[in-house]
Design goal:
Substrate binds at residues 69, 111, 149, 190. This protein is of the alpha+beta class. It has 4 helices and 7 strands, in the order αβααβββαβββ.
């Protein structure tokens, strides 16, 4: 190989290596930034007392839904799908008052999603699962991907619900449920977005 061509080849190799390293660094920065984000960080949810009467009947009917919210949404559109926002293990230090509702665990599986009805965002979902819940067949909870949580939960005859908390996230209605699979707990928070049928449907 001629000296000039060899020098050019070396220079191109070094430039490719530099660009590759920069891409890797950028991806690491983006991943680190995303891992620190939460779908619900814009403002805290104000949880209301169980005896509060500030709920219109049509809203209360949605907030106290005991069946699958996914299945109920399907009555108002042709297609429901879920887009994961964040899925990872986090520590107790990374959760807030949610720790009051769950047993102490070294790690919790966090899953945050946006649920769409006919490609319109209707619901923000945040599921927090102690590691001890992820045993036996329920290990599948970490691999749901784009499957709505309700499809998995309500396919089991061992699902129970301890309680529902009602709240507001800004002007949006929200709720939080402590659920159990075969007695093992998980905490589900749902925020209903403005285009959701929650705000324009009748009982």
């Amino acid at each position: 190989m001629l000296p000039g061509i060899r020098s050019l080849a070396v220079a191109m190799h070094l430039e490719i290596h530099r660009v590759y390293n920069q891409i890797i660094r950028n991806l690491f920065i983006v991943e680190k930034r995303m891992s620190a984000d939460s779908i619900l960080t814009t403002m805290p949810i104000q949880w209301l007392s169980m005896s509060s009467s500030d709920f219109p009947d049509e809203i209360l009917d949605w907030l106290m839904e005991l069946g699958s919210m996914t299945r109920r949404f399907e009555q108002y559109c042709d297609h429901v799908h879920v887009v994961p926002f964040r899925e990872c293990f986090i520590t107790e230090e990374e959760i807030s008052d949610e720790s009051d509702h769950l047993p102490i665990s070294q790690r919790y599986w966090l899953r945050e999603t946006v649920l769409y009805g006919d490609n319109i965002p209707w619901l923000l979902g945040r599921t927090l699962i102690p590691e001890a819940t992820l045993t036996g067949p329920d290990e599948k909870l970490v691999d749901l991907g784009t499957v709505p949580l309700g499809r998995y939960l309500f396919s089991s005859n061992k699902l129970t619900r301890d309680y529902i908390q009602k709240g507001k996230h800004g002007k949006r209605w929200a709720r939080r449920s402590l659920l159990r699979l075969s007695g093992k707990p998980l905490l589900l928070t749902e925020v209903f977005l403005p285009e959701s049928p929650v705000y324009n449907s009748k009982i």
